[in-house]
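Exam review. A common question shows you a sequence with its structure tokens and asks you to describe the fold in words. Practice with the pair below. Do the first one on your own.
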Amino acid sequence: MAFFRVPGDERPVKIYIFRQAENDSYDVATVIEGVGTGIYSVNYENVGGSQDKEVIVSWQISGDDHTLGVYSLDDVEGIELLWVDSYTRFRLSDLDNDLERELVVLSLQTGEEDASRADFYDYDGAALALKSTAPLSTGINEIKSVRSGNLAGGSPALFVTSSFRDVPDQVVDILSVREGTLTNITLNTATLRSEETVRTYRRHRQRHRPGRGHGGAPARPGPQGQRRERRFLASGVAAVRQPRAAPPGPHHLPQRHRRLVFRRAQ
């Protein structure tokens, strides 16, 4: 497998798949073509129900805009199983306990629609078909992470952590398959947010220590300190005064001087 970009072509980003010939050479078996400026990621996963892995390609259109394609390599033909025009993240996980992983595609909508969602795709024998859609919490502006796990009863689930655009809080939407349908089991239907799984974060204000700057650095002297510093410099005294040392006791003196001190004290 090799990746190329052909400027000026209608579909400039290409993935060449080679097959080994009998004489130890390689022939081009198929070419997968995509649009955009490059390839953001390539994953090899088994989502088509066959023994061979499929190729999941994230095509980068521009910036954070990506499209998603899933291709089967059965008989090295490069059959397209799925095409998603725009998405934010995706995750492969066995959510219905059929020992086959399904594809969940997350799409973030931050405009007037504000309808972020999770699309649940499963293989139907010919392609990856959209089975159901679950809404995510409204008001989110970034999907931080997507993790696979299990609920308390052992059912598989996806834990989607997102941040809000108006407050520093984060919310965790928990997605699980119920009776064959992907469901946001934490979503409050009244507020359209997963209220019970909101993590509240307070903005921490660093305590100010007198005479110290931010981060523990010494503060710059004020006008009074500046006048005192100029006075010290004018008189030839160092601007930074060292702490006055305590007068040395007998234990600070050399051994021969200690004897003299003790004799005089007697």
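Now try the second one, then compare your answer with the model answer below.
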Amino acid sequence: MRHRYSLLSLSAAAAVLIGAGPSAAAPSNTKPQPDLTVDGPWLTQSNGSPHVTSVALGQPFTACFLVHNIGAAASGNFRAAADAPGISPSPYRDMSNLAAGASGQTCAAFPTTPGTGAGTYTITARADALSAVAESNETNNTTTFPVLVAAPAAPPAVARNAAPAPRQAPAEAAPESGRGYRPGSLLDVRI
């Protein structure tokens, strides 16, 4: 018995065998999703000094960071946060919908009080802090940044009730000749 195959049926069979057939061309049911990432933070001292890496104890500072949507869909509204264990935590920051490819900035204020203590603290900035946005990658929502909280410099010590330094008599000039004459002394004349 003879089989007749058309060239079209052979090419379709070959395409299925090498993975280019109907199953490979099936449309994907994956919906585009946002993907939020974080850059920063950078710090600003309350005195207006931008981009600092250390702050003085007792002086509040602000940590700002950027949230980027590197995904293929808009994010919808979400909350971002920044915190540093050992320093009063920052409340959540509401962020508006970020379109695909868009970025937004948010800032959080941190007080440093004498109870904070000098030392190095780690600020953690989080996009989608409440995990409300379904993202294509949930593992890239945080970044960390060290900040040094330094004790204020001690004022210079001031001596109190110190005795004044003793005055020294002016130095006398050496005699100009061997005759014993000194400027300002009486002239001794003998006859």
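Model answer, second protein: Residues 36-150 form a domain with the Immunoglobulin-like fold (CATH 2.60.40.10). The longest helix spans residues 7-17. Full marks require stating both points clearly.
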